């Protein structure tokens, strides 16, 4: 789920898909131990509501499809409906329908969750494992909370790149002339997080962005930037058109393990350290099916739900969730990773975007 994500699964299509999920062979909650105390009672109440609408959860992103399937098998009497509209669009649509919302939960890039909370669109709810989240990963009353995070990494097509950069500093080397692609921080959350990562890697802070701008300027003046993109170039990378892509970790691992690139791809966490983007979710204020919404959110935050995120190459938000060894073997280890502080970064968004434009474009 990126900022400005364009794909949309229409409500009717989502309804059909979610029914298919619910009809799969079920390991229902009544047949197994509870994931948390009170799960069966909550399921009974949610069953009376019969449905939950999960807004902005596209099935091909972050392994949502696997969570849909697992939820449907565990709770066969709650029909799960979903769509994928993009974070900013989702918040604006909810604002227009705030008096009679049609959705129960809403998922977004973390900064959009802060925006929705400030508009008064969200209900407090502290799900399973809420207390295990660090303070920076949640609203104190649970109006939004982080369910997974994505780190900025260097994704290399080894057939195209002349060597493998291991750090932000390495990307300045002459060997990588015309090889580096990344996303525009004026239009994408990915680009914003990358700019923060470059800033912290060079000694910057939330109040001092100049080290990051200096690095961006050097990178562009080196001639190593092939292009800056306004939307994700995943298909171009898989087709072999991009030597080095500075991006979120999940796209690199998906290209490597799912979409056929295999050992041609190497995914590197920068040696200086990286920044992780929080992706958050919320119960909607005045949700038409609040118990079904709570059931869905609890499942997402349970150990079972968090493990499914890891299988989709995104980092679970709950510390210490047990991850199977086979899954861990595919994930990237980070020497240093810091979760982006949504409040402090949002306060500097305009400065970050304007400073990047001056450094990268001279404008």
- Main sheet makeup: 12 strands, mixed
Class by helix and strand content?
alpha/beta
Q: Which regions contain 5 or more consecutive residues with pLDDT less than 50?
A: 1-26
Strand content: 15-25%
Q: Please, how many helices?
A: 14
Q: What is the N-to-C succession of helices and strands? A: HHEHEHEHEEEHHEHEHEEHHEHEHH
Relative helix content? 25-40%
Specify the overall morphology: globular
Kindly report the average pLDDT value.
91
C-alpha Rg, in Å?
21 Å
Give the termini separation.
29 Å
Count of extended strands: 12
What are the SSEs and their pairings?
Elements: H1 11-22, H2 39-49, E1 51-55, H3 64-74, E2 79-82, H4 87-96, E3 105-109, H5 110-118, E4 122-123, E5 145-157, E6 180-183, H6 189-201, H7 210-221, E7 225-229, H8 234-238, E8 244-248, H9 249-257, E9 265-268, E10 274-284, H10 290-301, H11 303-311, E11 315-316, H12 325-328, E12 337-339, H13 342-347, H14 349-361
Parallel strand pairs: 1-2, 1-3, 6-7, 6-8, 10-12
Antiparallel strand pairs: 3-10, 4-10, 5-8, 5-9, 5-10, 5-11
Helix pairs in contact: 2-10, 4-5, 6-7, 7-14
């Amino acid at each position: 789920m990126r900022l400005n994500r364009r794909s949309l699964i229409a409500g009717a299509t989502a309804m059909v898909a979610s029914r298919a999920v619910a009809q799969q062979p079920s390991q229902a909650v009544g047949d197994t131990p509870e994931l948390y105390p009170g799960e069966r009672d909550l399921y009974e109440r949610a069953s009376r509501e019969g449905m939950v609408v999960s807004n902005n959860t596209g099935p091909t992103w972050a392994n949502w499809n696997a969570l849909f399937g697992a939820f449907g098998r565990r709770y066969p009497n709650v029909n799960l409906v979903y769509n994928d509209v993009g974070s900013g669009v989702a918040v604006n649509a909810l604002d227009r329908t705030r008096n009679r919302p049609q959705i129960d939960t809403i998922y977004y890039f973390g900064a959009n969750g802060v925006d929705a909370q400030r508009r008064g669109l969200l209900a407090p709810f502290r799900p399973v494992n809420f207390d295990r989240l660090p303070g920076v990963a949640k609203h104190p009353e649970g109006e939004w909370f982080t369910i997974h995070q994505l780190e900025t990494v260097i994704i290399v097509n080894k057939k195209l790149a002349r060597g493998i950069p291991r750090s932000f500093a390495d990307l300045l080397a002459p060997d990588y002339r015309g090889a580096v692609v990344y996303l525009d921080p004026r239009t994408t959350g990915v680009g914003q997080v990358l700019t923060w990562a470059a800033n912290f890697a060079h000694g910057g802070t939330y109040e001092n962005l100049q080290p990051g701008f200096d690095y961006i300027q050097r990178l562009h003046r080196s001639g190593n930037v092939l292009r800056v993109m306004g939307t994700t170039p995943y298909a171009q990378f898989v087709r072999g058109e991009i030597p080095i892509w500075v991006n979120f970790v999940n796209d690199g691992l998906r290209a490597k393990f799912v979409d056929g690139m295999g050992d041609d791809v190497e995914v590197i966490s920068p040696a200086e350290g990286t920044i992780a983007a929080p992706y958050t979710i919320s119960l909607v204020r005045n949700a038409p099916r609040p118990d079904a919404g709570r059931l869905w959110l609890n499942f997402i935050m349970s150990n079972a739900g968090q493990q499914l995120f890891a299988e989709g190459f995104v980092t679970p938000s709950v510390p210490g969730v047990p991850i199977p060894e086979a899954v861990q073997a595919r994930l990237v280890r980070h020497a240093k990773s810091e979760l982006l502080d949504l409040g402090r970064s949002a306060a500097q968004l305009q400065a970050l975007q304007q400073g990047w434009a001056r450094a990268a474009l001279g404008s």
